[in-house]
Amino acid sequence: MSDPDREPTEKPTTSKAEAEAEGQWMARNWIGIAVVSILALLLIVVAAMQVTGVMDVFAPIAETETQQWGILFGLAIVLIILAGWSWTAIAQSNR
Q: pTM here?
């Protein structure tokens, strides 16, 4: 069990420069997470509209349904790569 009387893992910020640097780090990382989350939600909405047949989003550039799903799959792969890059950058900036 954890001991509540132990020292905290991080010491409080003591200088203004350190506080500003930490604030910028937090803002940059949270913006990155927000962008990836918004793009993921948008991709989910587009996929849902494609599945239900509400609209053919990629019809102007892909004629068959298979091509349209291929484009959607490619966008999903790009989103996964972007998310991995973003989260790797966050993990490396903690060090």
A: 0.65
